Prior knowledge:
Order of helices and strands: HHHHHHHHHHHH
Shape: extended
Helix content: over 70%
Distance between the termini: 62 Å
CATH architecture: Orthogonal Bundle
CATH superfamily: MetI-like
Amino acid sequence: MTTDTARSEVAAVKNAASAELVLPPKPRKLGRTLLIIAAIAAFTIATCLPAIGGIDLDLGAIAKNWRNGAAKLAQLMQPNFEFLPRTWAPMLETLQMALVGAVISALLSVPITLWAASPTNPNTLTRQTVRTLINVIRSVPDLVYATVLVAMLGVGALPGVVTLVLFNIGIVVKLVSEAIDAADHRYMEAGRAAGGTQFQINRATALPQVMPLFANQWLYTLELNVRISAILGIVGAGGIGRLLDERRGFYAYSDVSVIILEILLVVIVIELISNQLRRRLV
Length: 282
């Protein structure tokens, strides 16, 4: 009886403990959810009304010309793989542009990032100047850079590489400098207490801490460069984009389909490789 009593007491304690851990049912907010959905829907509809300053979204024209879009999609679904050998040289140029742009921007982004972050650059004047320049670089679209640089440097890969360098620097410096600003910097305070200069502190403490983040962003920009360089070629900045624009101009959508599939495959392969490198480096 004593054993049975003890077991019953233990079971009662467990049941009481489990009863205490049961959470109350989550309050339902169906009315609030429906109100939010209705507000978003109303705002979306309002932005499509030209009478009140919205965009002129002509759904009737889309419905009227759907056969044209369906015909183009049907042509894209029939890739001409005999055209594939002509794409190898432009795709190689695209990969070269992406790699060169990523490497040059990686070298330039390290000192610029350290100048843009307050823990690694206490001088307000130089820090704000660098941040202003980076904001200006980021505010200009890459196609605008490519268009202007093609007019300045001529048609080819060079304006595309310069565009990618500017684009990559804007991304890397912005993200990494903000990460440095948000991190804990006790190790830098220890370096200052030991009498180190700002250059010594940045080299010995800041860079080892943020280098994995740099590597992550560099790999990310390499992935972006392949996609962006394919677009830059449309304005004459070299790469596979020039061939894509040429075949589109001749309405050879079966060739365009092959180019799109090739770009997709290359991007997937680069992403897989970069993921493997991230696991090793980050």
